[in-house]
Amino acid sequence: GGTCSAPNTCSCTSGWSGPTCATPVCTSTCANGGTCTAPGTCSCAIGWSGPTCTTPVCSSTCANGGVCTAPSTCSCASGWSGPTCATPVCSSTCSNGGTCTAPNTCSC
After folding, report:
1. Of 70, 58, 35, 27, nearest in space to 44 by CA
2. pTM reported for the whole predicted model
């Protein structure tokens, strides 16, 4: 990534730095434990993706309008709960052996 400009001195090409021009430079910081592995290229830690490692990855899809907000963490829409937002929430307990089948909907 560079040329010798004087004894023991390198002039690095764009995207490289360091005494031997072997250190890649990323113009944006690689976040969440990501590392710069080539000029402008981040290698993300497990659980993160995207150009700068700022997009969380959920191992299961967040259902019913849920959003992946951190690695394997869904933030559920109103009326839903559980790890993947697949569990409906009923504000009142379902009576007589009924089960909550949708937000605030009991089925007997």
Report:
1. 35
2. 0.73
Residues 102, 89 contacting (CB under 8 angstroms)? no
In Å, what is the CA distance from 5 to each residue of 12, 13, 48, 74, 106?
Answer: 9, 12, 40, 53, 77
Q: Residue count of the chain, please give it.
A: 108
What are 4's strand-pairing partners? 10
Half-sphere exposure of 7 (CA within 13 A, CB side): 0
Strand partners, 17: 23
Say how many C-beta atoms besides its own lie within 10 A of residue 2's C-beta.
16
pLDDT reading at 7 higher than 90: no
> Above 90 in pLDDT, residue 9?
no
d(CA 38, CA 44): 12
Which amino acid belongs to residue 58? C
Q: What is the Cα–Cα distance from 68 to 55, expressed in whole angstroms?
A: 9
pLDDT at residue 1, as a whole number:
67
SS3 at position 42: strand
